[in-house]
Structure formats: structure tokens, C-alpha cells
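User: Round two. Same drill as before: sequence, then structure, for each protein.

Assistant: Same drill it is. First protein:
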Amino acid sequence: MTTTVNRAMFDDVMVPNYNPAQVIPVKGEGSRLWDQAGKEYVDFAGGIAVNCLGHCHPAMVKALTEQGNKLWHLSNVYTNEPAIRLAKKLVDATFADRVYFANSGAEANEAALKLARRWAMEQHGEHKQQIIAFKKGFHGRTFFTVTVGGQPAYSDGFGPKPGGIEHVAYNDLSALKEMMSDKTCAVMMEPLQGEGGVISPDADFVKGVRELCDEHNALLIFDEVQTGFGRTGSLYAYEQLGVTPDILASAKSLGGGFPIGAMLTTKEIAAHLKPGTHGSTYGGNALACAVAEAVFDVVNTEEVLAGVRKREAMFKETLQKINDRYNVFGDIRGQGMLLGAELNSTYEGKARDFMMAGIEAGVMVLVAGPSVIRFTPSLVIPEADVQEGLKRFEQAVANIAG
């Protein structure tokens, strides 16, 4: 018996926490996708900043196939070669000395927050437990991380929240300074807010956050789930800010589409997660780490990272030309292949309309809140696909703006 799979079946069998588009993609190659009807799309969404090498990249397929014929999963009773190799490459390429593997960005952030609390308690005492994060931030969907994320719409409605968590406005250093004290355990921030509207930090703000953390013996946690692994034009965004965090969370592009997350930190801080204090059944499994290692070997090259910066300029220039014709954007911003086009007051709140119009025109984009259209394509998207995708996006804009 053959089951006909269609969008209506989703509503019959799936929990209704998502409302996906009517089309169902069935095939991907590079930066192109095809749906069940055979319609082709240029993919500027990239699985929400995940598919950093596009779809079915040869290096990833090779790694997955080879490792799939060797060893998939053991458990954390044992280690495996791909996990050790990947951890070594991450340590050699970053500020970190130690790596913890998980399965997602939320889990990497959860580990970072638990480690920060553990460090503070053991180093300074029970009183040092305050965690400060920023409004409009996003750090995952576990109850701890969604509470630390500064968007009540995601955390309200589930009963009492984890305590000791405070929020201030992003880029408001004076508000942060007023809130911090010797009770502050950690400050968690995105080095470029993604879900909150693609908001870049002021250079003085980031440096000021680091200085305040040092002053109050608090840890600085960078959530680089979306910005990391080449997305902004360097392996991690902190490299471009002149500030080094104490703990860093990575996921999304880390696996290029295969689920994996990582928490990176120093030897001294890592020592507080002794055996038995934290863990993950699947975290660091051989299959995920083999794929992520292949992604690392492609992304962490000057050719790819320079290409990200070149594509950023192409996007911004063409989006500005589209705006010159149709006057729909108030701001075009972001860095690397994490870009946002904020709608002006005439089209405020209609970002999803533009996203749906894009699907009709054959291009997939994202939103970052109700008024920002987000672009997170492959880091190696061919320039011809950039041009074609933006041509289709312009058609979508024209269909709305006239």
C-alpha cells in the first residue's frame, strides 16, 4: 500500500506548533530546491542558516556515506575518532581549549548556561547566580534557554520560569552596567541578533560588555548558533569584534544540515563539568561529527570566507536597487550571509507576505520578526544563483508593491 504524502496530511498527523508553506520540497542540489510538482526554487533560506554548503554537497555526502558504513553511534561510555578529530580542529581554530558536543543549538546553549552556573557556584558561592541576556534575543526552546531568550511570546504560557534571569535592551551598555553586580554569573548575547531582527552590535557595546564581565567576575557567553561557522565571513563572529568570550555555543552551520551542536570553552572553566554533571545520549556521535568535520574542512578556508564577504556586497547592492525602484525597505543590514531587509512603515508587519510571495516567484527567504525579511543562503551559493534569486525576489516585491 502506497501512502500519498501531501500538505493536508501534515495537519492530520503533526502537532500544530508549525504552520509550514503549502509546498513540500523533495530534492535539493546546491542552492536549488524542487517541490513535489517539480517547481524549482532558489534557496535563500538555507534551512534557517543551517545549510552552509547548500544541499547534498559532495564533501558532506562522501563523509556521511563513508562513516555510515563504519560506525554510527556508541554512547558516551566510549569516544570515537570523528569526535576527537572535530574537537581538535575546533580547538586549534578558536580561543577554546575544550569542546562539548550536543545535538542542537538549544542544547549547546543549555550546556553553556549550566556550566556558567556551576562555575559561579564553585568559584564564588551560591549568591552568584544571576544571568543577564538581551531583549529580542533567541537562544533555543528548552525551558531554560527560552527563558534566557528575551522574547516573552516564546516563553510565556508554560508556568513558572527558571529564576535568576534578567533582560536589558541590546546595545544599551548603561542599562547593563546598572543591572550588573557581583551576583552576576554570566552575560549571554548573540554577536549579531538573528531572530530578533538581524541587529548588529555597536563596537563599543561589545567591548563594554566584556569589560563589565571582567569587572564583576562574570562569564561572557556568545551564542554563535546562527552567526558561527563562516556565516559572517569569519569562522566565528567574535573574531571580527575584537572580543573573546569565555564560552561559545555553535550549531546550525556546524553540521551543514546534519544535527549537531557544540559548546566551546577554556580548560579552566570546563573543569567544572566533572564526569556525571552533564551529558547527552547522542551528542558527539560518530556520524554527526564526521559530517561536521567535512563541513569544517570546506568552510574554514580563506577562499570560502572571502567569498561570503563578496556575496554580502552583492546582496546589499542589489537589494538597495530593488528598494530604489519599489521603496519597501527602511534599512538593509546584517553581515556576511546573515542579512535583513527591514520593511518601512508602509509595509510594517508584512514580512510573511513577502516570504509567501517569494515562494510564488520561485525563491525561498525567511522572516526575522514581523517586519524584517531575512536572507541566510549557502555560504558558497554560486553568484549566478544570487543574481537569479534576487531577480525572483524582485518579482515578489513587485507583486506586493506594484
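Second protein:
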Amino acid sequence: MRILIVEDEPRLRAQLVQAIAAAGHVAEEAADGEQAHWLGEVEDFDAVVLDLGLPRLDGLSVLRRWRAAGRGMPVLILTARGTWQEKVAGIDAGADDYLAKPFHMEELLARLRALLRRDSQHASAQWQCGPLWLDTRSARALVAGQPLQLTSHEFMLLAQLMQRQGEVLTRTELSEHLYPGGSERDSNTIEVFIARLRRKLPAGCIETVRGLGYRLVAPGQSGGAGA
């Protein structure tokens, strides 16, 4: 998952980036409202952690502009002003959840997981595709009850495929969910990670759709022509 973190306080922003990356997501960051607004307009994110007290453009204005432009990604707002008026203003602007500072990082991660499940229409943190089972909360994956030893990039790639199992994902889409925006996105490396995953998963789980990309299916349930 790609998560945008918008926070002007450098230390807290670094802590959020570290915690969210450790949870198996790609964490991108913005330090002011104008940068956040631009990133949210031109990039696709699975969720946003948005501070309200931002320089250059406040968080509520950023959120209102995103929603007016039709950007529907889940947004968790943060504020040092934990009043009910701030909460109402944030929800009215289009926020999906609210957390007042100071907060425990574990609570923020739990709320973020809930938003991601809600948006992807998964009822729990545990996803399944045939004998393959993945827990986004503990960052664990099993095949027929046996744990898989995955690198962080392999886990993120598998999670993206499982979230949209049965759908064809292009190499570009997959690479965007593995690498922060500031790093070079080489879609050719996706082939390497796909090959590694195939060696660890049951045969037939990951199909290649020629000229398009890849899709995850349960073994024995081919997605159709082109695989």
C-alpha cells in the first residue's frame, strides 16, 4: 500500500514514515500543504495521514480541494487541537477518521489498517486466496498453514496482488506500490520479484497476462485467456 504522510514537524514525520514502512507499506511524505495538495492530485495513494496545522496551506483546505477534485482516498487527520469543533470540521471536509495529538503509534496504525480494509472492502486484516493466507496486521503470509519467508518488497507485492486478486495489475501499477515517489521506479524489477514469489507460492497462483501485467488467482482457477 502507498501511504502519504503530511506532517510539518520533522521528528514526528520521520517517526510516522518509519512506523508505516515497518508495517509493510510504501511511505511518502510532504512537509507543507501545497506539496501535499500537489502529490494528492497527481499520485494515487491508498490512504493519507494528514496533519491539519500545516504551513503554506492548512490541512482542511488541502482535504477540501482533494474532495472537490474527486479524490476519494481514505484520509486520517491529525491535529494538536483535540476539540470537537475540529473533529466536526475535519469530518465535514471529507475526513474518514480523526486522531488528536499526542497519540500512540499503535493506535494510528490500527486506525490506518481499518481505513484500508474499509476502502478495499476487506472485512478483516486477514486475506485469503485458495491455500494462500495473508495477515496485514502482523505482516505474515502462509501457504496451507506453513509460513512463507518473504522480504519486505515481496510481502508488499503479494499484498497488492491479494488486495486485487483476479484483476490484472500492470508492472507500472505494482512498482508504484513498492517504491516511494522520490526513488527510481524500474518496472523491470517487478519481473524479478514476481519470479521470486512464484518460487515460494503454489504453481499457478500468479498469472502473466501478455502485454498487460500479472494477476493472482487461486491454483486451478485460471483468470482466462492470455495467461
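The chain has a mean pLDDT of 85.

User: Perfect.
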